Input
Amino acid sequence: MRRAINLAVESAPAYTLGPLIHNSHAVSDLEKEGVYAKETVSEIPMGQKCVIRSHGIDKRTMDALSSRAEVIDATCPYVTLIHNMAHEAAENQKAVIVVGKREHPEVVGTLGWAGENAYVVSTQEEAMQLPEMEEAVVLAQTTIGDQMYDSVCTAISKRVKRPDIKNTVCAATARRQQEARALSKEKDVMLIVGDPLSSNTRMLFSIASENCARTYMIEDASGLRDIPVYPTDTIGITAGASTPDCTYKEVVARMNDIENKINNVENTQDLEQDFASAFEKTMVQIRPGQTITGKVVQITEDEVCVNIGYKADGLVKKSDLCVSDVKIDDEIEVEVVKVNDGEGNVLLSQKNLINRKLWDEIVAKNEAGEYVDGVGKEAVKGGLLATVNGIRTFIPASQLSLRYVEKIDEFVGKEMKLKIIELDRAKKRIVASRKAVLAEEESARKKAIWDTLEIGSIVKGTVRRIADFGAFVDIGGVDGLVHVTDLSWGRVKHPSDVVKVGDEIDVKIVNVDPEKERVSLSYKQTRPRPWTVADEKYPVDSVVEGKVVRITTFGAFVELEPGLDGLVHISQCAASHIEKVEDALHVGDVIRVKVLDVNTEAKRISLSVRQVLEDEALETVENTDIADEYAIEGEAVAAE
Output
């Protein structure tokens, strides 16, 4: 992680594809250094520097990114090794099984190198659902832990006859997890410092919780105020790999300050009071609206009693619980409604917390410009009512689709991505648009297509529309124009003489203008120039058919094919001498001519009508002589 951060800071100003590190404080500090996180390749400005985070990315994304930015690869060496193993397996036509969380960026990147025959499992149960296989390469997400990997691999071995199990759990991660496991067995309280988004931090929390019931995850020192600690407690502290050193040191320093304060008190009773006071001031102060994690200590018919580390326990009415199967010792997250209900109890609510979290999630997504997921519930006048995170949302009829919607009730029960276009915090009212999402997706799809268009490349297309000046061809979502002059090497009166609507043709990209969304195409450039093969198609002494297209004083030009004309000199226009060409030929006549000479370099073909006529006359004479001979022989036979 330090290597990735150092590379990013040294490269500033720069961008990262996704958060460089799973820690919001570290990401915020990087922005101050000029390193900004972007979610997609298209958001990275052209020509800028982009740092690949330690989780790595798949090959396709790497190729796309390399085409628009200067790539600085900070992928963890362990992860790079896993990518190489996955790629090698794919090259050898072997299945790849990745043990880890499917949504984790590292696993997503690995799958991009593993080819199509790849699977992801995170539990023994999922492993037992794998199809039976002869062989497969088994890889681990670097942060899942040795014990989990071993247990899942045991299940994989029952589905794969010859599993090639690679030990790809990060050694440093494994060592940190072993230390957390050992420490949690000795301490009364365990503090795991790190961001909840960090897979590594969550794994440490899970491991420590197995041995120490009072295990807490905190992002920074401010989280200490919500943790109950007593004078006789021994406390262990560890941190996730993505936790900045300064954050970890601040937590340790805070704990040392409290310890030093207690050590200066001689009397044991005073010590306990001072310790309790110190922690009450810094750790267990509560206020209405505060979110707290507590442990269920008692369940009655109507209420659940929760230990929240405060001087009084909290009470949650069962009607205010979102989880119905709560048990003793379960840890639940609740919101403080009242610090004192008049009888010394703290009133708590779980529904308030969930609703507020859902609303805050919507607000956060709106501020970040992200889409939200909604479900159509009811067609009303002027639009559709939908729910987003359980909150009622209105979608105007004009914002349901890119085109006019005749039957709004068709969207009832339909899941859809929405963009918030109006949000009233006070009234908790939301107006959203499906049309905006479709428009942005269409724009992104078109942009992706535009990015792939290369001048000079030949692509397949379908003729969609024909105009007097040319034909419009769909080349995969973008329409390009083949001008009438680019339809054929010869003269074209109208584009419909060459192509028809619905024809699938090969076209060459001549010019691309993304700003004006124009693509110029050529149909004729996908075909050989007529003059390059004229001597092969029209050898000397061959007789061909052509159309008279132009007459001059010295002869007539005959079109053999579009773009290829030959000259019949006036002396070759008829069997006998003529004064003018029009005495024998006219524009539009379809005639038979004999090829006298072909000069491809000079682009000249000499043709003759006279030679064809003379050849035909000679053939007639020969045939007449033969007939006469047969007639004489016949008469002699008859006389005999």
The longest strand covers residues 415-424. The first helix runs from residue 2 to 11. DSSP finds 15 helices and 31 strands in the chain. Residues 311 and 373 are 41 Å apart (CA to CA).
